Amino acid sequence: MTREMKIPGLDHPITIEPSSDRVTVRAGGAILADSTNTLVLREANYPPVRYIPFADVDQTLLTPSDTSTYCPYKGEASYWSIDTDSEGGEDAVWFYDQPYAAVESIRDHVAFYADRVEIAIQES
């Protein structure tokens, strides 16, 4: 199946900015991530999303999922489930293994669904 790739523009803007704010992600009583090196992705009218480097995520608390989704602006997303949270942890983490060129900087980063984990941000 051929997937349509779209380029961000005036009709659908995407910006990605580095942030030195401290971002901590928790679920089921465990710290999943702790980083001062995140990216803030702003896309169209959606709420901003923090992308956290893989290196700052405790991957031992995650299990790969068979779920995948497609975004015409970013590419194919893969998912992980959170082992410490049986209720909201399924497919709660996503990443783009091979993001499109317009969002290349999110490679090697993950994002968490804000309604399934606790995300604390301490501004720098």
Commentary on this structure:
- There is one protein chain.
- The protein is mainly beta and 124 residues long.
- It has one domain (14-122): Beta Complex (Metal Binding Protein, Guanine Nucleotide Exchange Factor, Chain A).
- The chain has no helices and ten strands.
- The strands form two sheets. It has a seven-stranded antiparallel β-sheet, with no helix packed on it. A three-stranded antiparallel β-sheet has the order 3-2-10, with no helix packed on it.
- The mean pLDDT is 95.
How would you summarize the topology of this molecule?
Layout: E1 14-19, E2 22-27, E3 30-35, E4 38-43, E5 49-53, E6 62-71, E7 75-82, E8 93-95, E9 109-112, E10 118-122
Antiparallel strand pairs: 1-4, 2-3, 2-10, 4-5, 5-9, 6-7, 7-8, 8-9
What is the number of E strands?
A: 10
First and last CA, distance: 45 Å
Adjacency order of strands in the biggest sheet = 1-4-5-9-8-7-6
Helix content: under 10%
Shape: globular
Keywords:
124 residues; mainly beta; Metal Binding Protein, Guanine Nucleotide Exchange Factor, Chain A; three-stranded antiparallel sheet; globular
Outline:
This protein has strands spanning 14-19, 22-27, 30-35, 38-43, 49-53, 62-71, 75-82, 93-95, 109-112, 118-122. The chain is mainly beta and 124 residues long.
